[in-house]
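Quick review question:
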């Protein structure tokens, strides 16, 4: 089944947004000065959150690849 154009575009937008958020979180985690200001539990939670985001990015990437239009097959919403 071919994914509707609007749905596919939302999928791409979500992918880009999550990548941007993951990059910001990764930057925070790797900034020792900022990261040291939070307690151990929050550090662990930030790392867990980043791992979850990376898994989500991987799933979105697979969905995009699976649903990518072939020869302009994306259909307009009815």
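Suggested answer, residue by residue:
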């Amino acid at each position: 089944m071919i994914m509707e154009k609007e749905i596919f575009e939302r999928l791409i937008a979500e992918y880009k947004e999550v990548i941007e958020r993951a990059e910001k979180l990764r930057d925070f985690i790797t900034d020792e000065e900022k990261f040291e200001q939070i307690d151990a539990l929050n550090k662990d939670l930030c790392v867990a959150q980043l791992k979850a985001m990376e898994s989500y990015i991987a799933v979105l990437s697979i969905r995009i690849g699976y649903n990518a239009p072939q020869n302009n097959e994306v259909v307009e919403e009815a």
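Why it works: The mean pLDDT is 91. The first helix runs from residue 5 to 30.
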